[in-house]
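Exercise: predict the fold of this chain.
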Amino acid sequence: MTGGRPSTLGALKATGVVTRPIKLEVRENLIARLSSGDPLFPGVVGYERTVVPGIVNALLAQHDFILLGLRGQAKTRILRALVTLLDDEIPVVAGSELNDDPYRPTSARARRIVEEAGDDTPVEWLPREARYNEKLATPDVTIADLIGDVDPIKAATRRLTYADPEVIHFGIVPRTNRGIFAINELPDLAPRIQVGLLNILEERDIQIRGFPIRIPLDILMVFSANPEDYTSRGNIITPLKDRISSQILTHYPVDAATAVTITRQEAWRERVGPRVEIPEEVELIIEEIAFAARESELVDQSSGVSARVPIAALELLVSNLERRALSTGEQPVYPRLVDIHMLLPAITGKVEMVYEGEQKGAEVVALSLIGAAVKKRFAAAFPAIGREVGSPEDKGPFAPIVAWFAAGNSVTLSDEQRFADYEAELARVPGLMKLVEKHGRTKQERAFAAEMVLEGLHQHLKLAREDLDSTVSYKEMVKFQLMRRVARGEGQSDAN
């Protein structure tokens, strides 16, 4: 006995330890988890009534399964979380390459050890983390990588024929025997390599180089794939699809509140440094950028818009606030709407454009997505902007604001201004701060809401906006358009 655990086959038998096939082990542990009410996939949010029930059903049915979904939909995280459904540790024949069960060894080496040592066969204990392996499917993956190959050096040094099972150098799949093996992006695996998986999924054995070597494997096979790859760039061969018993579709968050929860747990925002405060309204705007991208005709929807977009954007926002705090010496520091334009690097590198989007330019498309997100949040928080806004008949809450800009006034905001200067610039606009006095608990949040009003009026074509370096200026729409036309050499007669 070592550490209270049997260290030989005889001691293992004496304790009455029972080993189970991997799929039965997962099934029984899953039943226990469901009965206790403990979470199945901690950290996976928004799948409680869609994806998770499908996975549970597949595991209860002892199925191999595939998760099919666009990028950034937590497929890999779910597959890796399956390890929590394994026993804490299992006994294996010491020195075996295939994690052989001491009661039922499968490899030639383990069988020989058990035959020679009997009840004195040394036993090791394999922790659950060592029973999960995964492989990213790439076109250069070979059968030798996955299944194995004959090792001529081993054959020569031990004077064995190539037909002897002990000359095999096993690949990653058989080395995951009695565990879970995952293949990510399955369609990228060459068809001839996919053929090599057929026997594993159906007959549960492997064959190498045509030699009569058949080694039964006890393994749970799980896969992930992107629908675009599934149908276009690569294909899963029909016999392999037929052998994967369950196909489960993943999806993006269905609402911004769920997306905020995901981003909060994934983004790195608790940092040593200046104190940064990010209100929920700002988090929702960042999530709405991703939602806008998933609906945009300029974005390639078959590629998907990963949940990593808002995660990276929030991290950049925190960094920009840190930069301002270090520059101005002010703490705590709150976001401004002008800060959102510093998030372009998190958007342009992760959103694939269709041809029309590429013609416009990634940055122009990203800015339009930000505008759409702000417009949606503006509509949820402020009165609707109708056609009468800006007209002589306008008596609504936006009338004094639009009239002030129509008189030739402008506002210039920057992500580098001290808060007092930023707030004072917004306070110059008549009626603006009164309009937002109930939108936020702090003066920083109310200033953000005031900037939202200006951007909302711009998105509804009531104000013009000019971006220059790290500043944003809001101006009267008609005169601004006329100035731009004159600067281009157009419309001189109108200017006169």
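Check your answer against the key: The first strand starts at residue 65 and ends at 68.
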